[in-house]
Amino acid sequence: MTFVPNTAAQRAEMLKLIGVERFEDLLVAIPPDLIMQRQLLVPEAHGEVELGRAVEALTAQNLRIPPGRVFAGGGSYMHHVPSVVDEISSRGEFYTAYTPYQPEVSQGYLQSIYEYQSYICMLTGMDISNASGYDGATTLADAVLMSNYVHKGKRKRVLFAPFVNAEFRNVVDTYAIGMEMETEVLSADSSGRLTVDALRGALSEDVACVIFQYPDCLGYLEEELEQLSAVVRESGALVVFSFYPYTAGLLRTPGELGADIVCGEAQCFGNYVNYGGPYCGFLACREEFVRVLPGRLIGRTVCQRDGEPGMGFVMTLQAREQHIRRNKAMSNICSNQALLALRACIYLGSVGRNGFRQLAALCHANALEAHEKLVNISGVQDAFPERHFFNEFTLRFPGGTAAAIRQRGLQEGMLCGIHPLVESDGTLNSESNAGLVGDCLTFAFTEIHTTEDSDALARLVWEVLSGS
After folding, report:
1. Across residues 39-46, what is the average pLDDT?
2. Mind listing the pLDDT tens digit for each residue in 201-243?
3. Reduced 3-state DSSP string for 118-155
4. How many CB atoms lie within 10 A of CB 271?
5. I need a surface site. Which of 15, 276, 311, 395 has the fewest CB within 10 A?
6. What class, spelled out in words, does domain 67-77+352-466 have in CATH?
7. What fold characterizes domain 83-347?
8. What are 422's strand-pairing partners?
């Protein structure tokens, strides 16, 4: 059986219709020196058993770090995934990335997405949520797109508060090129904060939105967010929050702090940490902006079922979407992260309101415990000791020892923090505030970490700094 899609006769017919004799004639626009003249160096095919052994040999080279010894966050967090999440999400009725187009045969899946949207609205304090986005970075870019649509393209500046995740900013910068928008990072004061006066001085009539990360990428909470949001809204710009949703278990929601649009990463809800994803972004907004909200929206209505009152679920406001408006749609998202959104819905439903609050409190308590142990080591300082944090914090180490701590950690099976403003090539990010966090590491803690885990981290840091 051949797996070649077109026969020789079919290919000849297509070439004749195009008006060329050979397939190679279609490549004449490519300079000859850019065309590879040799065969690809691909090894011969293996049998299934041989291939399995080869893959096992490759995976054996991986460094496996126990979840409790991963002290890194920066957008991806090691949370416990209840077994019920894997069990329900693996059922055949659910195992797809597509939002259902046929409501009459998809009521169960549509209801699960509606419930996911409801959970996101509760956590963010917003009026409406979409059915999910690709990840936290792309939903932040979508939020910027929304601000551009709201202002009808007349406001072309995007302001970042200090210490927004550098990778998220890179994605927004890429989108901004196509929108002909300019991005700018605001400067922090010596305490790492954005002052009201500094924000007011940066605002003008051409600012479309101001982006705050809550908590910021160093783990800290901006105490004056409500006042800062009010200043932004007075200028006519939109307030966008990139939000770690576990924070809502203890603190006020972005909606209560004045946000217009809230986005973030839902990986922390029942989804595993994966290198490269897939992840699940959430995006929510105030009702007045629903017409520019990208992605699927699931609505609920009252209907008759077998002569009895019931509920029905459908995709609603579809005129905004790419399968109808095509190039004029709010977004080109099609296959969304419905499966991962389902997992988030199962997770939130299984832990419940009180359980979620308890988990958030445990994340915070574990971070406080580890912070106390680490800052009591000679030479270790909190990067911004006057500021509060949730489950991440940033520490300053004597010159050169931050890298040594990370290297020693890998040798002993620990991932000892990250530098939130270091690019993948190891260079310091160009953000104007990067100099405030030189020789620093950001550590993250969740409910899975124990006293023994933080003891092991503190012992390793002490040994590196003492030369042991």
Report:
1. 88
2. 999 999 999 999 999 999 999 999 999 999 999 999 999 999 9
3. HHHHHHHCCCEECCCECCHHHHHHHHHHHHHHHCCCCC
4. 25
5. 276
6. alpha beta
7. Aspartate Aminotransferase; domain 2 (3.40.640)
8. 428
